[in-house]
Amino acid sequence: MSRTRMISLFAAALGAGYCFYLLVGFLRIIAVNGLEWDGAAGSAREHYLAVGEAYSKGFVVGFFLCFFLAVIAFVVGGWFENSVKAKRAAAEAPALLSSK
User: Fold this and answer.
1) Does residue 97 carry a pLDDT above 70?
2) How far apart are CA 1 and CA 38, in angstroms?
3) Which residue of 3, 19, 26, 62 shows the fewest CB atoms closer than 10 Å?
4) What is the per-residue pLDDT across 54-91, written as a single tens digit (0 to 9) for each?
5) 68 Cβ contact partners less than 8 Å away, ≥ 6 residues apart
6) CB atoms within 10 A of CB 32
7) Is the dihedral of CA 39, 44, 48, 53 positive or negative?
8) Using CA atoms, how far apart are residues 12 and 69, in angstroms rounded to an integer?
9) Could you tell me where the DSSP H helices lie in 32-96?
């Protein structure tokens, strides 16, 4: 695998890991109903704004997680395709006969 692909794979894996961490944090906030909103002092508008802000953060994190996973898939897929082509070319190459 080329150096550029290795760097791309490392950066994409790092980005996907961080996005996965943020996505788990978002899901935890939603699961425990931990929105940044005080129900006693707030109005319905403030509640909907807090929910919208939380979901927009979750959407952005999910989008970038999919982006980094796609980059990983392209790099690994390209590497796999090149390795299969090299194996096929080596298998189809005529054997060289040594003459004595």
Assistant:
1) no
2) 53
3) 3
4) 889 889 999 999 999 999 999 999 999 988 888 888 88
5) 12, 13, 15, 16, 19
6) 8
7) negative
8) 7
9) 44-92
